Amino acid sequence: MIPLAMPNLTGREKEYLDNCIDTTYVSSVGEYVTRLEDMCKEACGCDYAVAVSAGTTGLHAALTAAGVGRDDLVMIPAFTFIASANAVHHCGAMPWLMDVDENWTMDADKVEKALKEECEIKDGKVLHKVSGRRVAAIMPVYTLGNIPDMDRYRKLADEYDLPLLADAACAIGATYSGKKLGGLADLSVVSFNGNKTITCGGGGMVFGNDEKIVGLVRHLTTTARVNAEYEFDMAGFNYRMTNLQAAVGCAQMERLEEFVSTKRHVRKFYEEKSGDLKGVSFFPKSEGSSCWFSGIVLDKVDGLDDVRRICSVLKEKGIEARSFWKPVHLQQPYADAPCGNLSRTEGLWNRIVTLPCSTNITEEELEYVAKNVREVLGKIG
Ligand SMILES: Cc1ncc(COP(=O)(O)O)c(C=O)c1O
């Protein structure tokens, strides 16, 4: 089977893991954790980074450090992996779900309109008029490694005095207007889950340029301990990354450029090989996108049955293909979350087929996938 997105562990991962075992540094203290933080600061062009146990825990800690709390609202896109919403929920807050634009990232026009028309400012707080809840943060998601108009989001966040966070889970290696990710939001979070471009098995990184807020994330994620005598000044989290995870991550980060370049190549390959196919388009790509995932989008309205059929025929041919994120407002835990006009999200999510895009996929495998996609689309018509 040609897998969808398999970890590529052919660098120094084993050597570094052996070193953890040999030195007994397997837990959350160890040279690889600090080294990985330094590598991420360099790769993301920022001053501070904190290694955490997962993207989700990183988002939870980042939102908490940004002041998101009980009954607040956080503006996030409806079209995202459910972890973005879960992190908001774990703060006791609720996502306010926004539509996406042509790059599948949160639509800045709709966010601005929602702030303008559906909120009022009272005692310095941005209040959602219908629910009376405080809007506590704006959190775009860098879907597929595509970066939305972050200059515009910066302006909006400043205008409304709201923290700007970025769910950059899939975006390591991406750039925006030639800039690295580190300074685009107050806090950004990448994921090192097994299906990401860089993996630690599981893990994440929270980063930014503000020493105070990233310092608070570090404090919160390491149980808010103030000294060696078991004294704590907050209800913190045990969200620190382990040295074992970081050992894998360091070996992976040594190959970041190579991996991102392969991801971009895979996306381009599918587009070039299948660009003439009728009835489909390809995954969108912002300038500087890290192209985390690749695949096709059926032109058909509500094509979920076709998506399922295509995936099952490809599976018979030894190719793993899947549908993509079901939006947050259609998920049972968030059925009551406030949402704006989600027309693009509604018309998009059920037409997507993700295709194999591992960083160790071969040219022969890519040819084989493209050939079979052509055949199956020909049959389905
Ligand atoms: C957009 C997005 N946000 C958050 C996450 C959560 O990251 P993790 O799985 O590392 O908790 C993921 C991926 O898994 C993701 O794709």
Question: How would you describe this protein?
Answer:
The protein is α/β, with parallel strands linked by helices and 381 residues long. The chain folds into two domains: 13-253, 3-Layer(aba) Sandwich (Aspartate Aminotransferase, domain 2), CATH 3.40.640; 256-380, Aspartate Aminotransferase, domain 1 (Alpha-Beta Complex). Helices cover 38% and strands 15% of the residues. The chain is built from twelve helices and 14 strands. The two termini are 25 Å apart. 51% of the residues are buried. The site of pyridoxal-5'-phosphate (PLP) has 14 residues, from helix 3 and helix 4.
For the sheet with most strands, the description reads: 4 strands, mixed
The CATH level-2 architecture of the largest domain is identified as 3-Layer(aba) Sandwich
CATH domain fold name of the largest domain = Aspartate Aminotransferase, domain 2
Outline type: globular
Helix content: 25-40%
Quaternary state reads single chain
Mean pLDDT: 97
CATH level 1 class label of the largest domain? Alpha Beta
Strand order of the largest sheet: 1-9-8-7
**CATH homology superfamily of the largest domain:** Type I PLP-dependent aspartate aminotransferase-like (Major domain)
How many structural units, i.e. domains?
2
Strand % is: 5-15%
How far is the first residue's CA from the last residue's CA? 25 Å
Number of strands: 14
Bound molecules: pyridoxal-5'-phosphate
H and E order? HHEHEHEHEEEHEEEHEEHHEEHHEH
Low-pLDDT parts are none
Q: Helix tally?
A: 12
What is the gyration radius calculated from CA atoms? 21 Å
